[in-house]
Amino acid sequence: MGTLGVCLLLALALLSPGTAAARKCDLQGLWRNELGSNMTISALDASGTFSGSYHTAVAATNKQILVSPLQGAQQHPSAKGRPTFGFTVQWQFADSTTVFVGQCFVNRHGKETLETTWLLREEVLSPRDAWKATR
Predict the structure, then answer these.
(1) Which residues form each disulfide bond in the chain (predicted)?
(2) What's the Cα-to-Cα distance from 33 to each of 3, 30, 56, 87, 125, rounded to whole Å?
(3) 3-state secondary structure of 97
(4) Residue 82 sits in a domain of what CATH number?
(5) Start-to-end C-alpha separation, the chain
(6) Distance CA 112, CA 94 (A)
């Protein structure tokens, strides 16, 4: 096989969908969502725990929105490279806490995406009000 054939074969291998799937998600770094919120995750330690900060662009408050700390854990990554994770944000401007759970994916172009679900619990005065405390 000539040099051109080897280069073409290599190019096709690099562009194949299987190659992108081999890329692994890395939670560390800066993440932005479609609403304009920013999250920064520090390096994961050997057990998969991490910390960071979250600056939400969306809040139901008149108070100044402040950057808030987060603590989380990633499931030990599998060979597939699409780890599940969870983290808690302790809001610095409200009497509430939010928990997020999700999974990291890499598309065929190498773009990493976090798919998450969240629950927010705000402080209420009595158990009678607990029904309206979780969103």
Answers:
(1) 25-104
(2) 44, 10, 9, 16, 32
(3) strand
(4) 2.40.128.30
(5) 62
(6) 30
Residue 76 identity (one-letter amino acid) = H
In a domain, 41, yes or no: yes
The token pair that represents 94 in the structure block: 């409200």
Q: Which residues pair with 72 in a beta bridge?
A: 50, 87
- Does the pLDDT value for residue 97 go beyond 80? yes
Separation CA 86–CA 120 (nearest Å):
14
pLDDT tens by residue, 114-132: 999 999 999 999 999 998 9
The CA-based diameter of the chain, rounded to the nearest angstrom, is: 78
- Whether residue 123 is contained in a domain is answered as yes
The predicted model scores a pTM of 0.78
Nearest Cα neighbor of 50 from 82, 85, 17, 24 is 85
CB 19 within 8 A of CB 10: no
Containing structural domain, residue 108: 29-132
- Assigned token pair, 76: 């030990």
Is 128 within a domain?
yes
